[in-house]
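sorry for the late reply, my laptop died twice this morning and i had to redo everyting from scratch. anyway the thing you sent over, i finally got around to it. pasting the sequence first so we're on the same page, its 139 residues, then the predicted structure underneath. double check i copied it right bc i was rushing
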Amino acid sequence: MGYEKKPDNVVFDQGSQKYDAALKPYATNVGAPVITATDSIAWKNRSINKVNHKVKTKYLELKAEYEKMIHEFEYNQLIFNAKFSFEPIIGEVYHLYERNNTESFLSLIAPNQCNFNILGSFYLNADQIWEKVTSLDDK
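ok and here's the structure:
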């Protein structure tokens, strides 16, 4: 062919017949800084671990919220199927009792003032959703 081989320390492109050291994405002389490969595996593992924890935590939060919503739905269904002859007032606590024939009824009478079989005490919130009250001091 007729071309002269350049020394190894000279950056010369045989195809274009040009010196192209400045165009290379890497260092081409002995005095250039050392190129070291970054450890992307460690970064990926840390990131995967963080994402896994985040997803698991979000899943547990959503699961707890779902379970709370199901309990709320069941309480509301139980109360709306109960007998009562008054219009409940928002912000008040009512008590759900069961008669001997398994019929349930809602009452203002507190459990310590009667001998009925108590199913629970409930608070009617501003959204007109019944919330179970664990202690009468809660509301």
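Helices lie at 40-80.
thats about all i looked at so far, will dig more tmrw
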